[in-house]
């Protein structure tokens, strides 16, 4: 597998999200590796080879549960 660090960084900048939220198609690594500009990254996003992962709320739910558990322990 080739290094796609630059492409992931550029994609996160174009998508305005964190690097962890960028998904690169593992079947198209060669084509993604050839992209070295923001314009080429935008084209790959339009083609669906690079996708922004959805927001997950697992951590928020977990924090809310612990908050209620602490409250129940106090009262």
UniProtKB/TrEMBL annotation:
Q: Where is the signal peptide?
A: none
| GO cellular component terms given for this protein | cytosolic large ribosomal subunit
Function recorded in the entry: Component of the large ribosomal subunit. The ribosome is a large ribonucleoprotein complex responsible for the synthesis of proteins in the cell.
Keyword set for this entry? Answer: Citrullination, Ribonucleoprotein, Ribosomal protein
GO MF term list: RNA binding; structural constituent of ribosome
Superkingdom of the source species:
Eukaryota
Q: Does the keyword Ribosomal protein apply?
A: yes
Record family assignment = Belongs to the eukaryotic ribosomal protein eL19 family.
Which PROSITE patterns does the annotation name? Answer: RIBOSOMAL_L19E (PS00526)
Q: What does the subunit comment say?
A: Component of the large ribosomal subunit.
Q: Does the keyword Ribonucleoprotein apply?
A: yes
Instruction: Report what the protein is called.
Output: Ribosomal protein L19
Which residue numbers delimit the Large ribosomal subunit protein eL19 domain?
3-74
**Matching InterPro entries, A to Z?**
60S_ribosomal_eL19_sf (IPR035970), Ribosomal_eL19 (IPR039547), Ribosomal_eL19_CS (IPR023638), Ribosomal_eL19_dom (IPR000196), Ribosomal_eL19_dom1 (IPR015972), Ribosomal_L19e (IPR057259)
Biological source species:
Microtus ochrogaster
**Could you mention a single GO BP entry for this protein?**
translation
